[in-house]
Amino acid sequence: QRPAEMRRNIDVSGLVDHEGGLLDRAVFTDHSIYAQEMRRVFAPSWLFLAHTDQFKKPGDFFATFMGEDPVLVTLTREKKLKAFLNSCRHRGARVCRADFGQTRNFTCSYHGWSYDLDGKLVSVPNEAGYPESFERDDWGLVEVPHIETYNGLIFGTWNPSPIPLRESLGDMAWYMDAMLDHDDDGTEVVGGIHKWVLDGNWKLAAEQFATDWYHVNMSHASALMVMSPTGKGPRDEIVHRTGRQYVDPNGHGAGFPVHTKNRFDAKTVHDHTDYTALRERLGDARVEGPLTNGHATVFPNFSYLPVNGSIRIWHPKGPDKMEVWAWTIVDKCWPDEVKQAQRLYNLRTFGPSGIFEQDDGENWSECQAIAAGFITNGVALNYQMGLGSEREDGRYPGTTSELYSDAAGRSFYARWRTLMNTPAWHEGDAR
Ligand code: FES
Ligand code: FE
Question: Directed axis angle between helix 202-211 and helix 407-420, to 10°?
Answer without folding.
Answer: 140
